[in-house]
Amino acid sequence: MVFDPHKPLIAQSDRSVLLEVDNPSYEEARDRLALFAELIKSPEHIHTYRITPLSIWNAAASGVSLEAILSTLRDFSKFDIPSNLIADIEDFLSRYGKLWFEAEGDGITLHCSDPFLMEELRHHRRVSPFLVDRGVKNSFHVDRRHRGDLKQVLIKIGYPVKDLAGYTEGDPLSLSLAENLPDGHPFRLRNYQEQSAAAFHLGGRVEGGSGVIVLPCGAGKTVVGLAVMNLLQTSTLILATNIVALRQWREEILEKTTLTSDQIAEYSGERKEFAPVTIATYQIVVYRKEKEGPFPHFHLFDARNWGLIIYDEVHLLPAPVFRATAEIQGKRRLGLTATLVREDGHEDDVFSLIGPKRFDVPWKELEQKGWIAAAQCHEIRLPLENSSRLDYAISGSRAKFRIASENSLKMTLVEELLEKHCDDQILIIGQYLKQLHEIARKFGFPLITGQTVNSRREELFEQFREGQIHCLIVSKVANFAIDLPDANVAIQVSGTFGSRQEEAQRLGRILRPKSHGRSAHFYTLVTKESVEQEFSTKRQLFLTEQGYSYEIVDRKDSFPASFPPIHSVPGR
Question: Which residues pair with 359 in a beta bridge?
Answer without folding.
Answer: 213
